[in-house]
Amino acid sequence: MTPRQLAEAWLERFNARDLEGLLALYAEDAVHHSPKLRERDPKTGGRIAGKPALRAWWTDSFERLPGLHYRRVALTTSADRAVLEYARELPGEQPLAVAEVFVCRDDRIAESFVFHG
After folding, report:
1. Which of 80, 79, 75 is nearest to 99 (CA)?
2. What is the CB neighbour count within 10 angstroms for residue 19?
3. pTM score, two decimals?
4. pLDDT tens-digit profile of 8-24?
5. Domains recognised in the chain with CATH numbers
6. How are the residues of the chain apportioned to helix, strand and coil, as percentages rounded to the nearest 5?
7. How many secondary structure helices (H) and strands (E) does the chain include?
8. Paired strand residues for 85
9. Tens digits of per-residue pLDDT, 69-117?
């Protein structure tokens, strides 16, 4: 998959709560960086690595935040990266502007970085 295809599939699978489909987009040793990780569990330093950690993170998110939805704003790509801008929408909260950078390797997401606006 190209970085554009990976980012588009990522958004679709996240919003569908398709955990297995979401994990299939990642390399086995993928690293994920997010301010929400640091906020939720400070000892992570905002970083987790590997599919088991990603599975645990998203399982918890899907269970705690059943109304969470990401609305695409923009997508920009290069040969090995995608920058997906989206609005994090959760009932009862103001939308949060987010940019997520996906670093791609061998048709998978190898590393991702989340930035909140």
Report:
1. 75
2. 15
3. 0.94
4. 999 999 999 999 999 99
5. 3-116 (3.10.450.50)
6. 35, 40, 25
7. 4, 6
8. 74, 99
9. 999 999 999 999 999 999 999 999 999 999 999 999 999 999 999 999 7
